[in-house]
Amino acid sequence: MPHLTRDDTVFVLHLNEEGATDTENVLGPPQVAQINELLDEVLASEGPAALVTTGAGKFFSTGLDTAWVLEHVDQVDAYTQSVQELLARLLTFPMPTAAAVQGHAFGGGALVAIAHDHMVMRADRGYICMPGITIGASYAPGSVLLVADRLPVRPAHEMLMTGRRYGGELARDLGIADAAVAADEVLAAAITYGRTHQNTRGRTLGEIKSSRYASTVAALRATVSGVGDQAAIAGS
Predict the structure, then answer these.
(1) Would you indicate the residue range of the signal peptide (predicted)?
(2) CB 76 within 8 A of CB 69
(3) Ramachandran class of 192: left when φ > 0, alpha when ψ lies in -120 to 50, beta otherwise
(4) Contact status, residue 125 vs residue 132, Cβ threshold 8 Å
C-alpha cells in the first residue's frame, strides 16, 4: 500500500508499499482510498509545505488495476470515478506538488504525474505513456481533458492518439515533463522544487488551481458511466 514519509517541510507520497521495489504500483480501490487518507494527513499539517509523489524501482505506476477490473465489472464505473476524483484532488491540491517519476508511468499512473504542478523524470530509462489507443481502452472525458489542459497541444494530441512512449529527455524537450535528470537525482530534484515553493501553500493556491482548471475539474468530478460495459466486452 502507498505510504508517506517526510523530508522536513516536504511530504513524500510513495505509491509503492514500504520496502517494496519493482512492483507496478497499481491504483486499485484500496490504493486510491489509502492515498486519499494520506492526503488528508498532509492537509492536516500546518505551515509551509509541499507534496512530492514517487514510486520505487522500475515503476512509478502502471495505473488502474486491470485484474481487479475484470473481476469486478459491476463496480468499474464507481472505481473509475474514484480515480477521476483523486486526479481532481491532486490537480487542485492547495500546496505545491511535484511528481518524481523514477520509472514507467502508464495510463492512470501517467495521469497522476500529469496532475502535479511539476514533473521530474529519469533521463535514461522509464517512459510516460497513455496506451489506451493501442489496447482499445477509452478514457473518461476528464482524463482526456487533463492531458489536454496540462500539456502542450501537439504532444497532448500525439500522446492520446498514438500511444507513443516518451523517455525522460524527450518528454522534457516536448514540454511533457519539466526536468529530466539522473536516476539518483529524480526525488531530490522534485523535493527541491517543493521546498522552493513551499510558502505558496494555502487557500489562495488552491483557489487559483481550481479556477485555472475549472473545466477539467468539473469533467473529472462528473458521474462516470459505461466504463463497466467496456470492461465486460474486453474480458469476454
Answers:
(1) none
(2) yes
(3) alpha
(4) no
The DSSP bridge pattern shows strands 97-101 and 118-122 to be parallel
For residue 59, count other CB atoms closer than 10 A to its CB. Answer: 23
**CA neighbor of 120 nearest in space, from 201, 180, 184:** 180
Q: What is the pLDDT of residues 55-114, one digit of tens each?
A: 999 999 999 998 998 899 889 999 999 999 999 999 999 999 999 999 999 999 999 999
pLDDT at 235: 44
In DSSP terms, which residues pair with 5 in a beta bridge?
Answer: 12
- The amino acid sitting at 97 is T
Closest CA to 89 of 56, 129, 53: 53
Strands 10-14 and 3-7: antiparallel
1-52 confidence digits (pLDDT tens): 999 999 999 999 999 999 888 899 999 999 999 999 999 999 999 999 999 9
CA angle at residue 30 from 77 to 224, to 5 degrees?
15
Contacts of 223 (CB under 8 A, 6+ apart): 81
Q: Is residue 138 within 8 Å of 157, Cβ to Cβ?
A: no
Q: Say if CB 22 and CB 56 are below 8 A apart.
A: yes
Tell which residue, 52, 112, 90, has the closest CA to residue 209.
Answer: 90
Q: Please give the grid coordinates belonging to residue 127.
A: 517512459
